[in-house]
Every structure is written in structure tokens, then in C-alpha cells.
Design brief:
Its main location: membrane. The chain is mainly alpha-helical. The protein has a domain at 29-253: Up-down Bundle (Growth Hormone, Chain: A), CATH 1.20.1250.20. Helices cover 74% and strands 2% of the residues. The chain has 13 helices and 2 strands, in the order E-E-H-H-H-H-H-H-H-H-H-H-H-H-H. The chain has a two-stranded antiparallel ribbon with strand order 1-2. Strand 1 (2-5) and strand 2 form a beta hairpin. The longest helix is centred in the last third of the chain and has 37 residues, at 305-341.
Length: 342
Amino acid sequence: MATTTTKSDETTITVAPPGVAPPPATCSLPFMLLLAAPRMAIQMAWAAQWAAFGPQFANSYAPWAAQLIRILGPTTGLIVYPMVSVLSDSCRSTYGRRRPYILGGTVASIVVWLLMMVVSRAVQAAKDEKVAADKLSGVAIVLYLLMGVAVNTIQAPAALLIADFAGDHQVTAFSLAQAFSIIGSLLVSGYISLYGPASQSILAFLGMLMLVLVVTVLPVLLCVPETPYVPEVVISRRQELKRSCIAVYDGIRYLPRVLAVYCVCFILATLGYASYNSNKNQFFGTVFYNGNGTYADTCGASCSDAQKRFNKGTRFASGIVDTMHLLLGLLYLGVLPTLVRT
């Protein structure tokens, strides 16, 4: 505190030092774990997307067509993710900015998975499963696309919600979220290791998926105290939708050079990882175990020796190999904060 005194009138003038801004708000570790928990269900959904319908697409379409269908997942992310992010930033709901989209994406995902169960049940109940699978392949593609849209609708606001509350612990929050993602993938690989390819028990597999989604998302919807957003300038819903639609274009156009290089590398790495996931079962089942994947997911007790070998390769690739890879990822995350700080 500084004071200045004048001799003429003995008036004391007090000059206060400039105020110091308070540190950014942070949240406790248990609360951060609660925020990051939905990432487990989200990652399970991505791991399940191809595991559930990949064999059907491989049987109904040529390999190049099946790969094009596989790219629908990352493509929907490039479009839906930024759109939902922009819309959630300007959401004026009294429920908060992020949670309305998390709730909507959760409901949409459950509806899509229930429809997937119906399609799978219809194929299993048909007299000729091969013909039924071919006829319903178009419906499966639509559901596959809608699943990508629904899961991205959860993923974008869930990530932003973590950033909103993490404060100056963004690296720790990212590490926890990534750890939950790896745990979600471990649940999928563990299921496949125990029960075989997911496509052979799709009803139980999707049921597990819905259970984990509800258990992890419901506490966030009920316990996270979001502050409603009050904009300085209110724009119409049409303008908000227009701005969200051009978010991808604006993001690419005004992206700094360094971030542009990072973005290209990230997209290429994502596409490469997606290609690996869609081909690993074929490699281990066909090349490594010398099996035959044609309708190996629906043959049941009448599988030939070649189909059994293919299913064994699928179980090995999506079970044991994935589990080892994910455990290594958890080990890396354990030292990531230290590596970043140093």
C-alpha cells in the first residue's frame, strides 16, 4: 500500500496497487475422474464400431468398398466434431453448455445400438443368414454412419467439459481422460479374449456398451454444476447453425502453420490407425492362421476348420495383441506428465 501526503491541506491520498487476477479455478482429483469417465464409454464405442459390423461388410462388399465404409467413422468426426463444439460454445440452455449435447448424444447412441440389435437379431432369425445379411447391409451402413454422428456428439462436449473445469491442470486432465480411453479399449479387448469375436455375440456386446455408457455419463449429467452461458450479443439459431457449418472451413483457413502441420500429421496417423484396426483381423485370421473369413462370424457350430482358424486369429488380434498394446499405452501415460514438465 502506497500513501502520498501534501503539505498544503494535509490530505492523505491512498494509492492501491493494481489488483492481481485470481488463479484459474481447478477441480479436485475425484471430480476430474468423474469428468473423464465418459471417455471410457466413448472409446469402447469406437472400438466396437468396426468390431460389430466389420465382418458383415467384409462379407457383403469387395475389400475396397469395405475400406471406404470404414472411413465413414473418421470422416463424420471431421465434420460433426467441430460443428458440435461450436454449437455447444454458444448453447444458452439453463442446463449448461456441454451437458445438453452429452445427453442428446447418449440417447442417440443408445437408440442406434438398439436398432443394431434389431438388425442383428433379424439376420440371425432368417432362414438364410447370408441372404438376410446382404439385404440388410444397406441398413447396417446407415446405422454405422449414425453411430459415428452420435458418438461424436458426445465426444466433443465431453472433451470441452474437461477443459472447462481442469484449469491449470490440463495435462493431468488429458492424461486421465486418455487413461479412461485405454481402459475402455481394454474392456473391449478383454471381452473378445474371453468370448471370441464381438460379431458372434453382438447382443451381449452392445448391451455391455450401453451399460458402461449410462454408468459413466449419468453422474456427469447429474453432478456437474455448469454455469449457464449468457452471450453479450444474442444471435439467431439460424446464424449459429450457419457458423457451425462453416467451422471446418474457417478452422482450416485460419489455422497457424505449425498447427496445420500438426493437424495433417494427426489426420494421417488417425487414418493409419483406422486402417490397421480394420485389417488386423484379416491379417491374423487369413495370413497368420491361414483361415477363411467368409461368413466366419455367422457360421456358429457349423464353421469349417478354415473359418475356425480365422475366428482364432480375430480373437488373437483384437484380444491378446490389443491388450498388450493398450497396457503399453497405460505405461506411457504414467510418465507423460513428467515428460511434459521436463
